[in-house]
Amino acid sequence: MSTAVSSAPSSAPAPANPRSRVITASLIGTTIEFYDFYAYATAAVLVFPVLFFPTGNDTASLLASFGVFGAAMVARPIGAVVFGHFGDRFGRKATLVTSLLTMGIATFLIGCLPTFNQIGVWAAVLLLILRLAQGFALGGEWSGAALVATENAPAGKRAWYGTFPQLGAPIGFIIANGVFLVINFALPHPDGGAQRSEAFLSWGWRVPFLFSAVMVIIGLWVRLRLVESETFTKAEKTGAIRKFPLGEVLRRHWWHLVLGTFIMLATYVLFYLMTSFTLSYGTKATLATASAAAQKAAEAAGKVFDPAAFAASYVPGQGFAYTDFVIMQIIGVVFFGIFTLISGPLADAIGRRKLLIWVTVGIIVFGLTFSVFLAPYADPKLTGALTQAFLVFGFVLMGSTFGPMGAILPELFPTNVRYTGSAISYNVSSILGAALAPIVAVALWAAAGGSPWLVGLYLTGCSVLTLIALLLSRETKDASYDDNIGVGSTGSL
Question: Which of 84, 109, 319, 486 counts the highest number of beta carbons within 10 A?
Fold first, then answer.
């Protein structure tokens, strides 16, 4: 049956997507989606603990903010099922447009929200609802973009094409944090240029969320010009499309769902530790600085300051200024983008599995170095140099593991359930990795008295699970999309 399909005349009604359009559509959409996601991630550290979760305790406020941040990860598998269902039944194009619109509207509305001081706890409730909408949309975005790229890729270049939706992650991060930096620098800073201003907390933080509307309009214009891939069209012509793709993938491809979920785990944990956790840890004041500020405040208020009690309850960080640390992160993310692109041709040449095994071993070792690279040394220059090196090494590994995911996860499944299968694997892994990583990291950071060594051990443990999944999987480099469309032994009911 697949032979007959492959011999269909080239004059099919639907025109082929030009490769430049495929690359642009898969890249610009994920860039916008990740921009929206990272805008929230940055605000979750800098703004939301103060404006939406004012508990009176810095750590508790940060944990509450990260809790809402993680809630979106729970919504992502739901989005994966819903968008995967429609993407596998009716095509990739309309699904991608809908996911982009949903994310854009939710992000824009976050920028319009009243704060806790204005409407009380309802501010946090509304933020949670919009955050869930973000997660729901992103649950369908990634897989659709990856399928648009890989199903339209030339022979032997599927992993290379699959890196372009992945490249949206570093680009979105740089744009989102760049916008935050520009806004922060442009506002008056009575307490110094490296500190957040009252104007930033009052209204400046809203600008990046409102700005997303412009990016969404551009993304929609590009995606509306796409047509369906020939691979999906072949599945339709052969009757391989299923009325209930979720049931099909759970019944026939459950093992690939499990493998895909754990193959992605180390990538998620690494990324959210390198972005959200390091921003929290890097910008939290050192014990000496915080103690001096607390003592000064106590004396001004006519109260007695107890250094021992303060030290016992305070969770210290490295004490970098916010702007300085974000610039350091952006430098690291540049390497993330470079190695995302490099990993594609390398995965096409030597295989996805082989490359990811070696990269995962590197992540395992990297997790054991946290206490060396991130310790607050007496020499500020040494602390800065080691922290920058840590960010570069971490993001090199991140690019190397994230790039091939755009190919390996879709390749685990036949065409008729590829959207659903890859989306569920990718997004269930987000619960195990991304949703828990920032919360677990903050708890371990506090449990270790401000040292990051337990956080690194957590990364190592999760990476061991990924390594096991890779060892249990098979190489997908030569998997044929034309032959594996979900008919015959691969997917018939």
Answer: 84
